[in-house]
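Let's practice the habit of predicting before peeking. Look at the sequence and jot down your guess about where helices and strands might fall. Then scroll down.
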Amino acid sequence: MAMPLIQVDALWLAVEPMDMRAGTERLLARVVQVFGGAQAHHGYLFANARATRIKLLVHDGFGVWCASRRLNSGSFVWPRNGVVGTAPVTLTKDQFDVLVLGLPWVRLEQMRLITRV
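Done guessing? Here is the structure:
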């Protein structure tokens, strides 16, 4: 079995909006500010104020990778400051996969179960 190019053991979501013009250096500075430091094999997700664009910063143990995604219509489901506070949110791989598609990742567990109403 082939090893993945980038290993990500934990995914963190920053609640406060980020300017999407920010490059890796500014994103890394925000990671240090919000999370206390960039840990190897951890991914950090940021969104703009309208949640139409996201950036993922990953520290792979040797350097930093940065990826971005935007939706052609609609917005990503993103927690707001008033709902969660300023504390970072951790994501599972399934939640991340759903989030980058623009689907409601916060209801993932509820969506897996069909019940009688």
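How did you do? The helical segments are 24-35, 81-84, 93-100, 108-111.
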